[in-house]
């Protein structure tokens, strides 16, 4: 029997919602073809243009508007989407919330609950909206899917959700071919890194990402190691630039902004280590991407990062804002350099838990659980 599933992607403004967009699109690509699931994607025309690989595989129903407007998106979910999906067997809402109307059964993906752990990083309006809507959405959902056991337990504890109806659908990370040495040399030269040792952090400068501690770390390293910061500009960008200037480290900090994936992969592959001081993660795909490219990982022990890396990284348990944290991170980098071969080996093993196929099979099981549980 074929299960007709509609996936609500109307909340995605391509390139704006970061890891949650990547997480969902990758697991959809990993869906097995032999599970009898007939998928329809409900999205903006901009999403279709950004993800032609999904449009080539699944039926796409585009919204009548192609605008990045939250109020309009919410209105579409409660009217246009509800009407279009009325005859389907199941609707999957991938953005952490779901409309207050519409057909059950439903699968709701909750990527993280950062607003509960770090409310100071959210505006009052945004926090109040999430407090109201996430709780109501979890209560209405037939099945809640989370990327890690950490988020699963948080959902159960925060909202009293039934444990058997909250399941882990892990992030699926595609295979990444390590660039040849000639490409690595060319990219390093282009970014001013020829013959330099460097560390990489791929993250938008959001406050919770902890960039500042890495500036303090540079001051504690006993060589001229450079720090390459990949990713777009967030609210903490001014504070970051101020810290770089105050420590007189401009020559050792390479700020690339958004760059092509080929450049990003080459810079990561050539690094001594990837440093990842984020205070909060629901998953943390860059951790797996670094392991895929045989790059040692030094990461914060906060929340889901520890679960993702397991024993395949050097873990720092000091908060980025703590006194002396920069020196602790510097020591962790030195440890990663000493243990490089061992960490690379462990990373190769750990990475196998996060394939597209593993993620897709877990999503298919969540759909089947929701359809059976509603029946």
Give a written overview of the molecule.
It is a single chain. The protein is built from 16 helices and 13 strands. By secondary structure, it is of the alpha/beta class. The protein has two domains: 186 residues, 3-Layer(aba) Sandwich (Rossmann fold); 173 residues, Glycogen Phosphorylase B (Rossmann fold), CATH 3.40.50.2000. Strand 9, helix 10 and strand 10 form a beta-alpha-beta unit. The longest helix is centred in the last third of the chain and has 19 residues.
What's this entry about, in short?
About 45% of the residues lie in helices and about 15% in strands. Helix 12 packs across helix 15.
Structure characteristics:
7-stranded parallel beta sheet; 6-stranded parallel beta sheet; 2 domains; 15% strand; 375 residues; alpha/beta; Rossmann fold
Topology summary:
Elements: E1 3-8, H1 19-29, E2 37-43, H2 45-50, H3 52-57, E3 59-62, H4 70-84, E4 90-93, E5 106-109, H5 114-117, H6 124-140, E6 143-146, H7 149-159, E7 166-168, H8 181-190, E8 198-202, H9 211-220, E9 226-230, H10 237-246, E10 253-257, H11 261-269, E11 273-276, H12 285-292, E12 297-300, H13 304-309, E13 314-316, H14 325-338, H15 340-351, H16 356-374
The coarse overall form would be: globular
**Order of adjacent strands in the largest pleated sheet:** 3-2-1-4-5-6-7
User: At CATH's second level, what is the architecture of the largest domain?
Assistant: 3-Layer(aba) Sandwich
User: Percent of residues in helical segments?
Assistant: 40-55%
CATH evolutionary superfamily of the largest domain: Glycogen Phosphorylase B
Number of strands: 13
- The average pLDDT value, as a whole number, equals 92
CATH top level of the largest domain is Alpha Beta
Structural class: alpha/beta
Low-confidence stretches: none
SS strand fraction: 15-25%
Q: What's the domain count?
A: 2
**How far do the termini sit from each other?**
14 Å
Order of helices and strands: EHEHHEHEEHHEHEHEHEHEHEHEHEHHH
Query: How much is the radius of gyration in Å?
Result: 21 Å
The CATH topology of the largest domain comes to Rossmann fold
How is the biggest beta sheet arranged?
7 strands, parallel
Count of helical segments?
A: 16
């Amino acid at each position: 029997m074929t299960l007709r599933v509609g996936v609500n992607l109307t909340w995605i403004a391509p390139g704006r919602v970061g890891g949650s967009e990547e997480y969902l699109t990758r697991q959809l690509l990993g869906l097995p073809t032999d599970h009898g699931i007939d998928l329809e994607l409900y999205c903006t025309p901009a999403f279709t243009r950004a993800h032609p690989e999904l449009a080539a595989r699944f039926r796409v129903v585009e919204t009548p508007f192609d605008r990045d407007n939250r109020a309009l998106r919410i209105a579409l979910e409660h009217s246009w989407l509800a009407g279009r999906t009325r005859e389907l067997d199941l609707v999957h809402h991938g953005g952490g919330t779901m409309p207050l109307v519409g057909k059950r059964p439903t699968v709701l993906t909750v990527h993280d609950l950062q607003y509960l752990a770090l409310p100071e990083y959210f505006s009052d309006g945004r926090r109040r909206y999430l407090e109201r809507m996430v709780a109501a959405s979890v209560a209405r959902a037939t099945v809640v899917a989370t990327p890690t056991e950490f988020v699963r337990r948080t959902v159960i504890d925060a909202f009293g959700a039934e444990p058997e109806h909250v399941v882990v659908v892990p992030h699926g990370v595609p295979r990444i071919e390590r660039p040849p040495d000639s490409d690595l040399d060319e990219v390093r030269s282009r970014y001013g890194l020829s013959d330099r040792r460097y560390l990489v952090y791929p993250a938008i400068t959001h406050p919770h990402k902890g960039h500042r501690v890495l500036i303090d770390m540079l001051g504690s390293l006993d060589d001229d190691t450079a720090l390459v910061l990949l990713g777009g500009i967030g609210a903490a960008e001014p504070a970051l630039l101020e810290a770089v200037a105050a420590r007189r480290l401009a020559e050792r900090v390479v700020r690339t902004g958004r760059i092509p994936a080929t450049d990003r992969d080459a810079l990561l592959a050539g690094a001594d280590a990837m440093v990842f001081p984020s205070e909060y993660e629901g998953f943390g795909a860059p951790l797996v991407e670094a392991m895929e490219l045989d790059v040692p990982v030094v990461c914060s022990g906060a929340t889901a990062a520890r679960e993702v890396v397991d024993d395949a990284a050097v873990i720092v348990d000091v908060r980025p804002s703590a006194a002396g944290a920069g020196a602790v991170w510097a020591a962790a980098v030195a440890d990663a350099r000493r243990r490089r071969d061992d960490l690379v080996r462990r990373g190769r093993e750990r990475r196998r838990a996060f394939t597209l196929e593993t993620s897709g099979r877990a999503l298919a099981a969540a759909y089947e659980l929701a359809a059976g549980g509603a029946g």
